[in-house]
Amino acid sequence: MTQALIESLTATIVDLPTIRPHQLAMHTLQRQTLVIIRLRCSDGIEGIGESTTIGGLAYGNESPESIKQNIDSHFAPMLRGLPASNINAAMHKLDLLAKGNNFAKSGIESALLDAQGKRLGLPVSELLGGRVHDSLEVAWTLASGNTARDIAEAEQMLEARRHRIFKLKIGAKPLAHDLRHVLAIKQELGDRASVRVDVNQYWDESQAIHACQVLGANGIDLIEQPIARTNRAGQVRLNLRSLAPIMADESIESVEDAFSLAADGAASVFALKIAKNGGPRAVLRTAQIAEACGIALYGGTMLEGSIGTLASAHAFITLKHLTWGTELFGPLLLTEEIVTEPPVYRDFQLLVPNTPGLGLSLDEERLAHFARK
User: Fold this and answer.
1) Which residues are catalytic?
2) What would the pLDDT profile of 53-80 be if each residue is shown by its tens digit?
3) In sequence order, what are the beta bridge partners of 37?
4) How many CB atoms lie within 10 A of CB 8?
5) Full-model pTM
6) pLDDT value at position 314?
7) What whole-number distance in Å separates Cα of residue 54 and Cα of residue 34?
8) Which of 9, 60, 17, 130 is nearest to 273 (CA)?
9) Plot region of 101 (φ>0 → left; ψ -120 to 50 → alpha; else → beta)
10) 263 and 340 in contact (C-beta within 8 Å)?
11) Element (H or E) spanning 338, and its range?
């Protein structure tokens, strides 16, 4: 039997409109930009993947433009001619020849897994060890910045049975303003919903000590990355003093970071993101470190579209415990799609397909329409 080889790897930048501006501490999204990766193999099978950042270089070291450039100029030539079914060998070669670039590598690994799943007739989750769940609870981010608008949006989500976990993006405004905003929303929603906050590193340690005690004392369930990832000693101190659990997000830019954070006791929850770890298989290595150390897990997102969201979901459904649920709502933030059948959300859950590969097909016409020219 002739072994299938990688024939080509291409990257297309796609700009999709969002349902509303999405305000983060460092950036406000007016649209979401995806890098769609297509891996074509000599046996005629194509795998698809996605590399997506939040706010481009405002968030991290990779942008959609740099991801595409590095795939076109470096990664595609590296991979051409390699066995398509040997994902270990392909990713090992990328790691040897290119440092970092985890967002780009994540999309490539997802495409390799999608192709292999199609080749074997198996969902990607089965290639990752086998699913123990068929769906995942999904949080929604309230990020308009307006208290009344965020409360109304949360009420709509509860009524529609779409979300009952809400994360608030704070940090860009004065601390007193942010605390009033969060506590007003929590008071209105009460025990009907879990309310968490994400600060995106915008507080200093003195602000965080005060804010984490106030938020924890008033029923806020989880506080995500309140201070700078570089202040490791401060993260350790804060994790000991906060009345609510502290979750590491920006602090985890690699599997090695996860090990170091666990060893230092810098967080009691880890946000899992395939993009930041370098792919679905890599993020499961971070999960194994956390599980061994008794650290709780949360399925994070870079606000990926449908392809990146399901690549994450296939990894997350292989985990026995996701104590804090997931945040895989990226497709719901978009007003347009580039796949033929979008992911299904029902009764607070994302349903994960049990069909070969990721379970998605590209809509060629819509992909061409939204592709950046």
Assistant:
1) 169, 327
2) 986 677 678 999 999 999 999 999 999 9
3) 11, 49
4) 13
5) 0.94
6) 98
7) 10
8) 60
9) left
10) no
11) none
